[in-house]
Each structure stands twice: as C-alpha cells, then as structure tokens.
Amino acid sequence: MHRYRSHTCVQLRESDVGATVRLSGWVHRVRDHGGLLFIDLRDHYGLTQIVADPDSPCFKTAETVRGEWVIRVDGVVKARTAETVNPNLPTGAVEVFAREMEVLSAAKELPLPVFGEPDYPEDIRLRYRFLDLRRETLHRNIVLRTKIISEIRTRMGDAGFTEYSTPILTASSPEGARDFLVPSRIHEGKFYALPQAPQVYKQLIMVSGFDRYFQIAPCFRDEDPRADRLPGEFYQLDLEMSFVEQDDVFATMEPVMRSVFQAFADGKPVTQQFRHIAYDDAIRTYGTDKPDLRNPIEMQDVSEHFRGSGFKVFANILANDDKAEVWAIPAKTGGSRAFCDRMNSWAQGEGQPGLGYIFWRKEGDKLEGAGPIAKNIGEERTEAIRTQLGLDDGDACFFAAGDPKKFADFAGDARTRAGEELNLVDRDRFELCWIVDFPFFEWNEDEKKIDFGHNPFTMPRGGLEALENEEPLSIKAYQYDLVCNGYEIASGGIRNHLPEVMVKAFGIVGFEPSVVEERFGGLYRAFQYGAPPHGGMAAGIDRIVMLLAGAKNLREITMFPMNQQAQDLLMGAPSEASPQQLRELHLRLAPTSKKD
Hints:
The protein has helices spanning 59-64, 122-127, 129-132, 136-158, 199-207, 246-264, 279-286, 312-320, 337-349, 372-377, 379-389, 404-421, 463-469, 499-508, 513-519, 521-526, 541-549, 579-584; strands at 20-33, 36-42, 47-52, 70-79, 94-105, 162-163, 181-183, 191-193, 213-221, 232-242, 275-278, 300-301, 325-331, 356-363, 366-370, 396-402, 432-436, 441-444, 449-452, 479-484, 487-494, 534-540. It is α+β, with helices and mostly antiparallel strands. It has an eight-stranded mixed sheet, with helices on both faces. The chain has a five-stranded mixed β-barrel with strand order 1-2-3-5-4. It has a five-stranded antiparallel sheet with strand order 12-13-16-14-15, with helices on both faces. Helix 4 crosses helix 17 (541-549) and helix 13 (463-469) runs parallel beside helix 14. The longest helix has 23 residues, at 136-158.
C-alpha cells in the first residue's frame, strides 16, 4: 500500500464496504459522541468520516488530534446506518473505522477559522492566506478558475488560435496607467517596464506573418485597486487576428465566450445573440458604457414635454442651454411616495440637490400623476410622459436635467439603484453585449487638450481622410468592449496598420513624428515593411471568473492577492532593498519629506 493513501477523501463508496484503505488529509472537524470519536478528514478532493472507538488501537492517538492537524489513517470501510447517511457528501453513505493513525504534522492554534465561511478581518486572511485557501468556497473558486482557463485554451485552439508568449521585461507603453519599472543593472540609469498589456507585441506578431495568436497573459499596472480590479497584476485572454474586420472578430469570439460561460453557468441562461450597442446609445439609454442588461430600465429623452412648461427648473435649464436635455428613468412598480422619497434622499447623499419624480395612481377610474412635477406641468404633459414611457398605475419615473455629459453617470447610477431596489434585475442569468463605436478622441479638461479616448493603436473610422478632414471629437473608432452583467470583461479593436495614419493620429494629441518614431519605434518600423490589416481583443480572466463564481470581489478568486494598499501581507512585499542591491542597480533613495 502507498505510504500515504490508497484513496482520496472523495473516492469511497458503498462498493468499497469491507475494504481496508489508507487516507491522508487535514482534520476538518472532531466530534466526541460519548467516547466515540468522529473525525471529518479533508483533502483537496473532499471529506470522509473517520470513526475511532475505545477498542481501536489508535484511539489514544485519535484523542489528541485537533483541527487542521495532518494525519494518516488506516481502516476498514463500513456502511453508515440509514439514519446517519449524509446525502450532501459524495462519501456520505460510508465511513472508515480507524485501526491505525499517524500524525504527519501538528498544527498550532489557528489565527483564523477554516471550518465554515466566517466574516473575518481581511488583513488576517491575507497574512495567513495558506489557511484561508483551505476554506471550502475559496478553495472551490481557485479550482474553478483553473478549469475556466483550461476551457478557454481549449476553445481558442478549436477556433484556430495558437498560443505564443511575449516578453515580461519590455519598454514603457502608453496604455493609460502607470508602469512598474525595473532598474537595469547592466545599463546604468535605464529601466525596463513590466507590460501593461502585450499590445505592441501582439501586433508585431501579426506583422511577422503569424495569423491567430492568443495567450493567457500576465499584465502589470501601477494603479489604485477596486473591487473589480486588483492592484499590481491581472491576467487576460489576449488575442489578435490578421486580415479581419470588426464583424470577423465578433463572429469568431462570440462562440468562444458564449461556450465558456455556458460551461460554467450552472444552468443559468447565457445570451445566445450578443446585441451591438453604439457607445452614444449606451450612454443615453443606460448612463454607462458597461450596462447591466438584466435591468430592464431604459432611459429616454423627454425634453419636449418640459419646454415652456410650468416646471420652471427644467424649463429654464432647457431654455438657457442648447446642450441641455431632460432624461426620464422609468421605474415600474416604484409608484409610491415612500420609494420616491428614498430615491430622492439617495440622490442627495450622492451630492445632488435631489431627484425629481412623478408617480401614477388610480383615483377612482382615473389614472393620475402625483408629485410636485406633475402638479407643475399639468395633466396633459404628465399623460404624454406616461404614454411615451409605457407606464401605468403603480409605476414611477425619475428625472435628470442639464448637460448630459455632466449628469449621465448620475442618471445611470439612479437607473441601477431603482432596478435593484425594486428587484427588477434578473440576477440568475448572464447577459452579454458588444459596445461599439467609441469616440476616437476625447477632451482632457485638466490639460485643456485632445487625448485618445481609448486605445491609441485603433483604426479610426474613415482612416486618414477622417483624421485630416473631420472635427477630431466627432471621429469614432473601430473600438469595442464586451460587457456582461454590468462589467466590462473584454476590450478590443481593429488596429491601425498604416504608418501615416499612426503619425497623424498621434499628431492630433500633440506628439511630433520624431517622438512617435522614438517611443513606438518597433511598431512604427514594422508598419514600413508590409503590415496586414489586423484586430483583436483582450478579455479579463479575473472578471470572468468572478462573474461565474458569483463572487463580489476579485480577491475571492485569486490565490495570493495583495490588499487594498497594494501590499502582499503573506510575503512581505514590497520590501526594502539592501544597500548592496541599490549600489548594483545604480540607485540612491531620496525619500519624500512629509509636511505637517
């Protein structure tokens, strides 16, 4: 028999009754039933119940073991009585009567519980991550992550892609976040950068004559963390294709993404035909470029119903600002004053003066609008708003007014709030869509200049002619995002592959041709020697796993994450460098002085 085990802790069944087996694992729980000891033994695969009675030769050893000790058990498989069968365990019909027990490793008193799913301080959980990873849910999430990545690789191979690796030590790139810099020991005063994404390399792979590339790529960005973005590093499904247009990317990747979600959706419906929603339409309808389509609320422009109306706040805004609009946020079943007041209070908590509303109720046989706005604009305009939005008795509507560029985010948040509060969101499904036609450029209010709106390497719609003849802020890009349940899970585009377009685009945001050649020399030179039209995307592995695991935070699906302050409490990173290391790297520390 093997030194440690003949079976794992999930394998034994009624067909094994009478067999002598050997198991090894962690003591999950010990229960003393009047001298009869029950030990739940756990390994990576599952649980098996061990029984030790006073007549067993190993009973004295069994009395000493505690939670999370590692033990080896030899014993005989017996069937449980009908009343003690545990239908929730694969091994719940049997138990092992221990005859021999060896302590392989004792455990100190635990700094955090492993049994169950306690709400425990995060700093303790991260410092003792090796214990936290023993918890059932977290352990299952990490295994799920591995299975999802394996499924992605299989589906990409089936779609004709080949996996290639790109460098980790590279040059700084304009991806929009801070680089992690690595000082060079050999080249004094110079630095490598960890890749924010393999963007340039994957385009060079296409120029090199390879066709369908992908990799599960580690990416590094020195940016602030949030629930759906870990500090430091993340992984993405990175891919690129030659001789394709935007629809070719969609047609190739929709089946891949749909099949991955279906494989792990646990029976929940997955979108079969992904909608294509223009960026401008997404903002106007949902207040965001990553809409949660499970929420049925769709905003509408109702400006005409307020022009010259008795509700002077909105009427004056429309009269005095050509850009101003009034948007309606319909809320079916929200037609009570109590709910409307809660939404108004929420808006004030968000820094807004309030949130205007109308709600409809039956007064006898007549359906009437109620609230200050309805009273001021009159019955005819109130009815016109109700008809346009398709609302009825017991429904409500909220309003946002002004320049849409300034209130769209808030309106989108109000839509989300109303949908969640009224339980309108169908949480048991995965709704995916493409957001397309992003602005190529945007206005940087801080620096008072034009910047790239998204990816600087994307092809503008209209190409060089658009860059030369159209107003820059009106130009759209062959840029697209894949969105699921309110999360951006992928971003991509058809790339610019022409050097003259590259120079012109960067020139509009203030880069001289010489600077473009210097900063992006590899790509610029490559475009001089025959570059194929190409495009692709990158999908966030971490967010996909988070959605499929039903987790709320990326740390729940990541094996060894940092905390919110970008510290690895387990390994003690970042750490100080020794004087010798600093000398070898030609570095001297200049600490920032702290002002009182």
